[in-house]
């Protein structure tokens, strides 16, 4: 029931987007609660995640679960019906987790560098690093997809959701740096994957576009964040 599941987050938080996609995949009804994360943080956030004080937080039957990829694992375990989010084989699960860690340790900070760069040269430098990371992920896609449409095979899964949540900010970074990163000549498999991922029913309504992120950056520069 909707009242049993709440998600604390914000629309332009890629980590909140991950959880929303997972809940949509499992067809779980939930209430999305937009919380304040700038300045005075929302009381419900401080109560639900007193350690990190960050979003997203899934509240299920009054119990909070924090950290986006931990939440995804919880969703997959609790609502065990198909489709599965994590691969079934332990080795494939380990590989998916490895690449998610790589993403979160490397791609996120690089995208943020593109978005917040002070000047065109700094933005292009960050874009170059992002392009190198995507070339590595192109090889990961070959390994994980085994010739199918998604990292997870025939359907989107754990790694698809993790990377897909960054598509909006990545495309915003392309526009701001004037550098094409999802380049069909360099990463054709990822370009095709991104198009297929963005069209998924579980994704379309929650994946913010580049213009929304660009507006967010402008508002942050003006001192009025809208993320």
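Sequence proposed for the structure above (227 residues):
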């Amino acid at each position: 029931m909707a009242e049993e599941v709440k998600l604390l987050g914000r629309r332009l938080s890629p980590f909140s987007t991950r959880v929303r996609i997972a809940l949509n995949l499992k067809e779980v009804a939930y209430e999305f609660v937009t919380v304040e994360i700038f300045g005075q943080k929302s009381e419900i956030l401080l109560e639900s995640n007193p350690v990190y004080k960050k979003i997203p937080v899934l509240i299920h039957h009054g119990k909070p679960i924090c950290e986006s990829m931990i939440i995804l694992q919880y969703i997959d375990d609790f609502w065990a019906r198909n489709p599965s989010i994590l691969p079934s084989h332990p080795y494939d699960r380990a590989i998916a987790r490895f690449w998610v860690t790589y993403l979160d340790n490397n791609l996120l900070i690089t995208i943020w560098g593109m978005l917040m760069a002070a000047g065109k040269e700094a933005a292009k430098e960050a874009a170059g690093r992002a392009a190198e990371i995507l070339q590595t992920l192109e090889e990961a896609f070959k390994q994980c997809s085994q010739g199918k449409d998604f990292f997870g095979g025939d359907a989107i899964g754990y790694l698809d959701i993790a990377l897909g949540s960054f598509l909006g900010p990545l495309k915003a970074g392309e526009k701001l740096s004037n550098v094409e990163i999802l380049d069909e000549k360099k990463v054709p498999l990822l370009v095709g994957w991104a198009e297929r991922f963005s069209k998924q029913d579980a994704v379309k309504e929650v994946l913010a576009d580049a213009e929304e992120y660009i507006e967010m950056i402008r508002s942050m520069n003006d001192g009025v964040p809208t993320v």
